[in-house]
Each structure stands twice: as C-alpha cells, then as structure tokens.
Amino acid sequence: MIEIRLSQIVREHLDRKKRLQWEDAVTAINSPTYQNFLKSDDPELFLSLRDLDYIDSDGLLWILLLGDFLNEKGKMVWLELPSNKWQLNFLKKSYFVETAQECFSITNLYKLDDSFIHSGIKRKNDNYLRFWKVDISSINKLSTVYLHKTVSNVLNKNILDHLDFTVIQPFVNLIVETNRNLIQHSRGKHGEGWGYFVLSEKPTKFGKRLTCTIGDNGIGFKKSLIDKGLHIRNDQEAINRALLFRYHNREGAGLFRAVQFASRLSGVIRVRSGQASSFINFNNTYLENENSVHDFISNKTIKRLEKVFFPGVQIYVEALGDGHARR
User: Fold this and answer.
1) How far, in Å, CA of 35 to CA of 26, rounded?
2) For the chain, does the N or the C end have fewer beta carbons within 10 angstroms?
3) Which pLDDT band holds residue 9 (cuts at 50, 70, 90)?
C-alpha cells in the first residue's frame, strides 16, 4: 500500500503554517510524490489529512476529486481524518465526511463519535455551507430559495437591496445552472455526469468571504466545446472561450456572469481544465456592463500552463462580504 501525507508535500506559507487550499492542492498534484501516488499500480492507497494547520473547503474539494478519479481506476483509497477536534467538527458539519464516504474508506471514522464533535452538529435542511456530490438524483436539492438565503447572509446583504436583484440572484442562478451543466455535459453522455460542489464561508481580516467551488473529473472544456462544433486548439483557449461563451451566446448564465458577479463584490475567479488554468483578480474593479466584462477577461486574465494534466473542469469563485468594488 502506498501512503501519502498531505502535510509533507503541501508548501509552508510565510507564517510557517501548512494549509490545504486550492493553490496548495494544485501544487501538491504537480509534485513527483503525488504523481507516483496517482500512477501507482498498487490496488490500495492511503491518504492522510493529519498535521495540517488549516483545511479549507476548496482544498477538500480537490480531495473528493482525487478520490473519485482513483475510484474510477478501480483503486481502494483509504482516508485518514485529522486528529484536531476543530477540523473534525468542520469536516462533519460541512458534510465532507458523508460525501467522502462514497469514494474513500475512512480509517479513523470513530473520531467523529467524540462528544465535542457530536454536540457541535446542528443539521438543518437549509444549511448550504456544505459539500454536495452533484448528479441527476441530487440536483433538485439545490433549492434557489435556500441558496439565495445563504449567499445573502454571508455577504450581509438585505433582501431588498438593489444589489440583491442585480448580482446575488443571478449568482444563485449561476450556481444552479453550472451544476446542471456539470450533469449534462461533463461525461460526454447527456445527463450522466457528476461532480462536487461546496459553498463555504471564510473569515478574513477584511471581512467574510463567500467561496463557491465546483469540480468534476469529466471530459473538460476543450472536448465539450469541440462537441459544440467549435475549433479549439488547446486547454487554455478552451478556458478563454468558456469564459466568454455567454457573451456571444446570450442564453443562460455561464462563467461570463460569474466574472461580473465577482467584480462587483471584490472577488476572484480561478478556472482549471486539462493542463491549463486562468486566474482573474479584480483589484476593486467594478465591471459595469457586458462589454467591460468582455474586455477585462480578454486583457486581464492571468493564464498558466499547468505541469500536470488533470481531467475535467474545476472552478473557484470568491466574493467579499461587506465590501463592494468602487464604481
């Protein structure tokens, strides 16, 4: 059995802390240790979340993608939960453990029986700060009413606020549509796709951040767009065309609307597909209309060729509560 401890391969930040978040997970995937783990012929693999100082929802979504990827290759993957009680509480309360059990065998599940963990759980039907495996059977559970409530609460917006109608409601629609697209197009056969979604809140010194991460191990943007009849040369071009797709095809929301949403709430967007990624940081830039969104995507996107191919599409959208970009 090959073992890998994420705390040994994620980078140490300037504060000497080790975090499992989007960038750290991608860096880990690029490491030789991780690649040996992915390519191993061993039928059983062991992955540990112990000894990490911080574990973020976007990093955990990558863990779910990894488990799903290896599951499809016929691997049995063991997952060791952290021993830190606060991290355990987060993993259970956010439904990560419940979701992970579909693709991992968890070695120390008994840790969740601790009285501290048990007493800290408040399961509510309207708690959408959580992980989902999204497929044809679960998509209807993503109620727009509760998503709207959660987004508004995290961003501290009044339901009667003008911003609610111009930004938040379209963003809720975007979440639902993106997850439906994942089901319809990610695996090649219409309606047979699946992936993972998490809506989460991150406290920072600048205020609360709403983060939305969606990912799958499917066919990726390049093949999906080629199947629509477009000529696409590589993964980077595919991401760029996907970002601008709803500018040229006005029906629906798409990533184009996510860019407009994030710009109005001091946010960022990361997109990864195949062997390429794009990063958009708005730096307090308020994109007033569709043409300004188009120009910003075309001129300000930071593009990167990833060292390692990873299947499917992964999207991260962040918005800052209590903060607006300047007009």
Assistant:
1) 12
2) C
3) confident
